[in-house]
Specification:
This protein has two helices and eight strands; from the N terminus they run αββββββββα.
Length: 149
Amino acid sequence: MTMQRRGFTLLETVTSLAILSSLAVVGTELLRTSLRVTHEAVAAQEMAARLSSAAGSLREDVWNAKAFSSNDNQSLHINPPQGSQINWSIDAGDLVREEGTEQRRWHGIGADSLFEIDGPSIILRSRNHDNREQMRLVSQLQLASREDR
């Protein structure tokens, strides 16, 4: 008389469970990593947009500056040809622009930055890195007045 097999042996069941458990662990880690990378990409994109916005405003202010000065590396005072003085500062890691009563703040942009004046140029530099991480902005009016001399 021949016995017919019905079902799985204990070894086959345990092996299947081990394989399924391994796939579940790998799938969970893959999902967790994908979510983390997506979150970091969104944060980096938001930071790039804030930096671009701040750089555009600073570039416009410096480009039209009649004169500028700085008491320390954390602040910059820009005198436009017309209107009131524009003050830029680094405050608690934020880059801040003040003109009259208006204030605009770019969060997280100025954390390790400082201002330097170099002739008709303003340099926004990272204090923790070399010269590759700097932005040089030139005043058109100051440059033109130097060329007229």
